[in-house]
Amino acid sequence: MNPGRSGSAYLQHLLVSAEGVVGEHEHLPTMTGEHLFAVEQQERSASIASRRVKAEAVASALAMAPDAVAYADTSNMFIKTFADVIVEAFEPSRLRVLHLRRDTIAVAKSFRELGCYTERNVVSRPWMFDPLAPTSLAATYCRVDAANPTEMIVGYLVETELQAARFRSENPEVLVHDVWLEQLQAEPDVLSMLGTLGLSPTAETSSIIGERHNTKVQPKTEAATTAEPDFADRVVDVLQRFVAAGAPVAALLPN
């Protein structure tokens, strides 16, 4: 569970470096576009039949790797478009969910530099939940300004946090582990995480700890968007509005 720009590609490398783990970062089908738009506009039950394609793909990947001990996919779309179909398809005791977090200002700034929620970046729309959509959880607390990209970005981050909280509440039988990107830069923390998941590290695991997997350098250059000098303050202001309205998202506020 993560909004993107949180180190999920790096996390995937760590996971598949463990013994017997298969899978890919954002494995096909990506569950973006039509699947996202469907859950934005209607209750999830209305589109669950078409979204089961993801569960079928996971089952197929496992069938093709009979000796695997685990399948991992660090897609940020999990919490937005296919968490429910995975829980429906697999025994809850077989599932482990990582709630991956990164410093909120850093995540928001990355989205801002990518030009998200502006005309400079229409590519991101098929995978970023609209915080003003009919089914938005964030909108039940605060309405953000659709013309203000910083407010929309914060609304999106709040939305993913609320969806993660809903997942925990609706699926108490599924084990959820909190992981901070900043804590995955040292070997003891990485080994602890793998141990919690019942996974065994390999020599490759140690060799990739601390590696950077930033795939958005070129898109940021093309978007040519710069965060405002007071960007961090703006982000905090919007977050505080949500917290004041009762949204359980205080964890997003910078320490």
- How many β-strand stretches? 4
CATH topology: Rossmann fold
- The proportion of residues in beta strands is 5-15%
Q: Can you summarize the main beta sheet?
A: 2 strands, parallel
- Compute the CA-based radius of gyration: 18 Å
Count of structural domains: 1
How do the helices and strands follow one another from N- to C-terminus?
HEHHHEHEHHEHHHH
Question: What separation lies between the terminal Cα atoms?
Answer: 21 Å
Decide which structural class fits the backbone: mainly alpha
Number of helices: 11
Task: Give the low-pLDDT segments.
Answer: none
CATH architecture: 3-Layer(aba) Sandwich
Shape assignment: globular
What's the level 1 CATH class? Alpha Beta
Please list the strands of the largest sheet in the order they lie side by side: 1-2
- Determine the fraction of residues in helical runs and give it as a percent range: 40-55%
Mean pLDDT: 94
What would you say this structure looks like, in words?
- The protein is mainly α and 255 residues long.
- The chain has a single domain, classed as Rossmann fold, CATH 3.40.50.
- The chain contains 11 helices and 4 strands.
- The strands form 2 sheets. Strands 1-2 form a two-stranded parallel sheet. The protein has a two-stranded parallel ribbon with strand order 3-4.
- The chain is globular and about 50 Å long.
- The relative contact order is 0.18.
- The mean pLDDT is 94.
